[in-house]
Amino acid sequence: MAAGSSVLLALCGCTTDLDLLVRRADRQPALDILLGLGYTDEAPGRSLDHVPAVYLAAPSGSSRLPVDLHWECVGGGRASELAAEEIWCRAVPATSWGEAARTLAAEDLLIYLAANFAIHHTLAGALWRLDLALVLKRHRATLDWDAVAARARRWGAAGAVYFALRAVGDQLGVTAPTPTMNRLRPDELRVSLIDRLQRRDGVKLDYLVGVVMLDRYSDIARMLASGLVPPPGWLRSRYDSRSLIAAYLTHYGRVARTLARAMM
Question: Is the dihedral of CA 84, 88, 91, 97 positive or negative?
Answer without folding.
Answer: positive
